Amino acid sequence: QLQLVESGGGLVQPGGSLRLSCATSGSTLEDYATGWFRQAPGKEREAVACISSSGRSTNYADSVKGRFTISRDNAKNTVYLQMNSLKPEDTAVYYCRTLDIPVYWGQGTQVTVSS
């Protein structure tokens, strides 16, 4: 069983930065391709970025390309999402999820971009 725990969310002004972390307990994350998803109020959950198990391959939603960077440190069993140039429309609950079977979700961390 894999337990994912997100952290690093908070309130930030437009143009600011945050770094989210997705850490595991109970098992290793290095065997799983992993993604960050987000869900804004009244909207469907959407994929933001994903990374292969090795970290050599990444993909991004068009809305965050050039602003967000996904990375991982397998020695620390952690996947990161560096978010720069944040916009109010980035406000959402951010979740990490394994992309392989079985699928595991974290509990989410709130990101609010507001002046």
Key attributes of the depicted protein:
115 residues; mainly beta; six-stranded mixed beta sheet; four-stranded antiparallel beta sheet; 0% helix
Report what the structure shows.
The protein is mostly beta strands and 115 residues long. Helices cover 0% and strands 48% of the residues. It contains no helices and ten strands. It has strands at 3-7, 10-12, 18-25, 34-39, 46-51, 58-60, 68-73, 78-83, 92-98, 109-113. A six-stranded mixed β-sheet has the order 2-10-9-4-5-6, with no helix packed on it. A four-stranded antiparallel β-sheet has the order 1-3-8-7, with no helix packed on it. A hairpin with a 4-residue loop joins strand 7 (68-73) and strand 8. It starts with a strand and ends with a strand. The relative contact order is 0.32. The mean pLDDT is 95.
Topology:
Blueprint lengths: L2 E5 L2 E3 L5 E8 L8 E6 L6 E6 L6 E3 L7 E6 L4 E6 L8 E7 L10 E5 L2
Parallel strand pairs: 2-10
Antiparallel strand pairs: 1-3, 3-8, 4-5, 4-9, 5-6, 7-8, 9-10
Q: Helix count?
A: 0
Helix content: under 10%
Tell me the strand order in the biggest sheet. Answer: 2-10-9-4-5-6
Topology, number of strands: 10
Q: Main β-sheet, in a few words?
A: 6 strands, mixed
The SS-based structural class is mainly beta
- Alpha-carbon distance between the two ends: 40 Å
Summarize this structure briefly.
With 115 residues, the protein is mainly β. It has strands at 3-7, 10-12, 18-25, 34-39, 46-51, 58-60, 68-73, 78-83, 92-98, 109-113.
